[in-house]
Specification:
This protein is mostly helical. The protein has 18 helices and no strands.
Length: 440
């Protein structure tokens, strides 16, 4: 066997391939850090860490359970709105007005509406069936909607006209991350109860609709999220550059130290989540999930609660999406509902999981970091290429290339497509595919 063949066979092993790919990624990050600067590279790494959490959430749903979830953007927005409510400074104009009382009435109306719907659904126990039961439930939902809107609309109008929006609670952003995950879990539970019984393609369509519903709600709830006007600046759980500068640290050094502190916190959270995911998937729980994913009919015949376990995966994955979305909002210090786009906050997450290797947390981690670094660096690299080409075309008398900035930004999608094509051509199961050990 030749040396080249031995190296190829060595890289075919998942362990050695993974080590080689992570070393290559490290070299790419170092080169990018040298060219872009330490502060810029730390910014990219913090954001990549947040996206890695979200991609691990999708891997739990798709890689472990085979669940098509295209509501990633919606859960990220929920996490962003949650951390805004928890960590943004208190708005005295709201708390000193009649806004809290009006919102209390709206909450009471909401609970009354739920009671009306619940009572209507209990009529089945009294023997009501068929068309009459369905009509009663529909009328109950309509009555609940009218009761709730009769209180929330005046409350929203009053808050927007007096205080602008309710503001936040001024608590630590990490509590906001936890609340974002909790809120995403609650929404995912009800969404999963309704849609997980659907066939795979129908589930994908349903989650797309859910994502757009969540986006529309958050964008139009001006009294709660300020809608399209955005909320900023968001506080950090670690010292901001301005705080370090006030202590005598230089401007350039303050950005490096502040972002490094945030990166340490983010990586610490990622390591904890990664550890528990690996422990769970490597044990009996993981074997059960693989059995349900590969053949849910056989698993059901063995007494497994297929829908219950799928709901479990859907909720767990959504928690990470909410936490990751909250972390990204905290780091960027701005919550802008209009800034969420499917290509950035849904499609790219799917690319991370597919290219890295669905079902393998190490592969997803590699794919997340690689895709996000390539996504960000493709813009300045494309600008450099276009500027040089423009100089050449000017020298040839063909004129300069127009709108280089916008063209370079659009090259991100092209580069991402090339990465997907190359990766799937030579590694159709991902750069680090799932490895299932069979006990003899």
């Amino acid at each position: 066997m030749s040396t080249a063949e031995a190296k190829v066979r060595l890289l075919d092993r998942p362990l050695y391939r993974g080590i080689a790919l992570f070393i290559a990624l490290f070299v790419l990050v170092v080169v990018a850090g040298v060219s872009q600067g330490t502060a810029s590279m730390l910014l990219i790494l913090v954001q990549a860490t947040g996206f890695a959490l979200i991609a691990l959430g999708l891997n739990i749903q798709w890689g472990y359970g085979g669940l098509f979830n295209f509501a990633i953007m919606g859960f990220m927005m929920v996490g962003g709105a949650a951390v805004t409510f928890i960590s943004y400074p208190v708005n005295p104009a709201f708390w000193d007005s009649e806004g809290p009382m009006l919102l209390g009435r709206a909450l009471l109306a909401f609970l009354i509406g739920l009671g009306v719907v619940y009572a209507a659904r209990q009529t089945r126990r009294l023997g009501l069936r068929g068309f009459g039961y369905g009509l009663l439930v529909v009328l109950a939902w309509f009555a609940a909607y009218v009761i709730y809107r009769s209180q929330i609309d005046p409350a929203a109008a009053y808050i927007e006209s007096t205080a602008g929006f309710i503001g936040g609670l001024g608590l630590n952003p990490v509590l906001g991350w936890m609340f974002g995950g909790l809120l995403a879990a609650v929404i995912a539970f009800f969404v999963g109860k309704i849609s997980l019984g659907l066939r795979t393609d129908y589930l994908a369509i349903a989650t797309i609709g859910i994502s757009e519903i969540l986006r529309a709600l958050i964008k139009n709830m001006d009294w709660l999220t300020r809608g399209t006007m955005s909320v900023s600046p968001m506080p950090w759980p670690t010292p901001l550059p301005q705080a370090l500068q006030a202590q005598g640290v230089g401007i350039a050094e303050s950005f490096v130290q502040a972002r490094l502190g945030f990166l340490v916190l983010a990586v610490g959270l990622l390591v904890i989540v990664f550890y528990f995911i690996q422990r769970a998937y490597g044990g009996p729980w993981g074997r059960m999930m693989r059995a349900i994913r590969d053949n849910h009919i056989a698993a059901s015949s063995m007494g497994k609660d297929v829908k219950g376990r799928q709901l479990e995966l859907f909720v767990l994955g959504s928690v990470l999406m909410g936490v990751g979305g909250a972390m990204l909002v905290t780091f960027s210090q701005i919550f802008d509902p209009s800034g969420y786009q499917p290509i950035n906050h849904t499609f790219m997450i799917w690319v991370m999981v597919i290219v890295g290797g669905a079902g393998n947390s190490w592969g997803v981690l590699l794919g997340s970091l690689l895709i996000y670094v390539v996504w960000i660096l493709s813009d300045p690299v494309a600008q450099l290429i276009f500027l040089n080409l423009s100089q050449v075309t000017q020298n040839l008398g063909w004129g300069a290339i127009p709108e280089i900035d916008s063209r370079a930004l659009q090259m991100r999608v092209f580069v991402l497509g090339v990465v997907i094509t190359v990766a799937l051509r030579f590694a159709p199961k991902g750069l680090i595919p799932e490895v299932i050990r069979h006990d003899r």
